[in-house]
Design goal:
By secondary structure, the protein is an alpha+beta fold. It has one domain: Peroxisomal Thiolase, Chain A, domain 1. 35% of the residues lie in helices and 25% in strands. It has 14 helices and 18 strands. The strands form four sheets. Strands 1, 4, 5, 6, 7, 8, 9, 12, 13 and 14 form a ten-stranded mixed sheet that branches. A three-stranded mixed sheet has the order 3-2-15. A three-stranded antiparallel sheet has the order 16-17-18, sandwiched between helices. Helix 1 runs antiparallel to helix 2, helix 3 packs parallel to helix 5 and helix 9 crosses helix 11. Pfam families: HMG_CoA_synt_C, HMG_CoA_synt_N. Residues 179-246, 252-352 form the Hydroxymethylglutaryl-coenzyme A synthase C-terminal domain. This is Hydroxymethylglutaryl-CoA synthase. InterPro entries: HMG_CoA_synt_C_dom, HMG_CoA_synth_N, HMG_CoA_synthase_prok, Thiolase-like.
Length: 401
């Protein structure tokens, strides 16, 4: 029985900041952002979007009634959760109208969370072949204004349905993985902004990739030549290229050229969204699948997941017959086209607008947010969410005020 990705979709906020304009405002040469780290645009979340709404919006348009009934596990990978106790998966489960006879759990290990969720999903499907698992990777990357990490911020989510006999990609062979207790990137519970040792984190990312790649080769007897492409977790789009360069000399020039070319294709979506932490690897995969029209059925694609702190894993998937028919390419292209550019000043205002941390209730104006699912406020310490497509009476009530 094959197990893998049956559907995959993503969502990013409707606002974005041009990195060239941010560079000018910060007195930085624009090429440092657009070429040096490889970022063109940064998705900017309004206060009406959090990790829950991003995840729910990513899943909303890929689910049908059969999925809603057959999904019996919802796994939410995030490092920007909204509650220390209740999982984001429970909120998403309700917002999407999924079968009540389901498990709903949040998974955390920095940017590795969604990969851990996939591995858990594989075990569940192996025991329950008729089931489907909804895996979510959703985050908002915040480092602060005028900080070294500011240019690598972003926001968005990827949603995947994992099932038996998948129509997009079947996972193949064993994984190689590694854990080490290091402090390259972390976010204490008292802070809404991440802390990072950038140079050390880059070094560890490359080291982890090299180590799990060596382990993977021993487990599988595969080489770089067996892969049509390798997708990476991308905190910024140049990071994966640095890791790939560490091993690229193992293969022929023709294979090197193919892998590097496909790597560039796999970075297109990330380049225009920014870092989305747990979803970044899978946004890279989605970019490859939707932007590379000639990517052949049956191709083997490598996947490197890295979560600071740190856990790394390399695994692979094979593209299924007619996989392109089961992508949501037009929907995703429309999402990009419909986004609105904001100025640096507007971005700074949005960044500084945060939810109360003292327990106060608040109502948010969701009319300017075109997303179907929004955060409408906080009441009695509980976040209030609205699905505009379903909560008609509530939404109309909001609209009439």
């Amino acid at each position: 029985m094959e197990i893998g990705i049956d559907k995959i979709g993503f969502y990013a906020p409707h606002l974005f900041l041009d990195m060239n304009k941010l560079a000018v405002e910060r007195n930085v040469e624009p090429a440092k952002f657009t070429i040096g780290i490889g970022q063109e645009k940064m998705a900017v979340p309004p206060i009406t979007q959090d990790s829950v709404t991003l995840a729910a919006n990513a899943a909303l348009n890929i689910l049908d009634e059969e999925d809603q009934e057959k999904i019996d596990v919802v796994l939410f990978g995030t490092e920007t959760g909204i509650d220390h106790s209740k999982s984001g998966a429970v909120y998403v489960h309700r917002l999407l109208g999924i079968n009540p006879n389901a498990r709903a759990v949040e998974v955390k290990q920095a940017c590795y969370g969604a990969t851990a969720a996939i591995q858990m999903a594989k075990g569940h499907i192996a025991l329950n072949p008729e089931s489907r698992v909804l895996v979510l990777g959703s985050d908002i990357a915040r480092y602060g204004l005028n900080t070294g990490g500011e240019a690598t911020q972003g926001a968005g989510a990827v949603a995947m349905i994992i099932s038996a006999e998948p129509r997009v990609m079947a996972f193949e062979g064993p994984s190689a993985y590694l854990t080490d207790d290091i402090m390259d990137f972390w976010r204490p519970v008292y802070s809404d902004k991440a802390m990072v040792d950038g140079k050390f984190s880059n070094e560890q990312y490359i080291s982890f990739f090299s180590k799990v790649w060596e382990q993977y080769k021993k487990k599988t007897d595969l080489t770089l030549a067996d892969f049509e492409a390798i997708c990476f977790h991308l905190p910024y789009t140049k990071m994966g290229k640095k890791a790939l360069r560490a091993v690229i000399d193992e293969t022929s020039e023709a294979v090197q050229e193919r892998l590097m070319e496909n790597y560039q294709v796999s970075t297109q979506y990330n380049r225009n969204v920014g870092n989305i932490y747990t979803g970044s690897l899978y946004l890279s995969l989605l970019s490859l699948l939707e932007e590379k029209a000639e990517l052949a059925e049956g191709s083997l694609v490598g996947l490197f997941s890295y979560g600071s702190g740190a856990v790394g894993e390399f695994f692979a998937g094979r593209l299924q017959p007619n996989y392109r028919k089961h992508l949501f390419t037009e929907q995703h292209q429309e999402l990009f086209v419909s986004r609105k550019e904001i100025s640096v000043e507007e971005y700074e205002e949005i960044f500084e607008e945060t939810l109360p941390s003292d327990g106060r209730s608040i109502e948010l104006d969701i009319h300017e947010d075109p997303a179907a699912i929004c955060l409408s406020g906080i009441k009695e310490h509980s976040r209030q969410y609205i699905n505009k497509q379903r909560d008609v009476s509530t939404w109309k009530g909001e609209e009439s005020r």
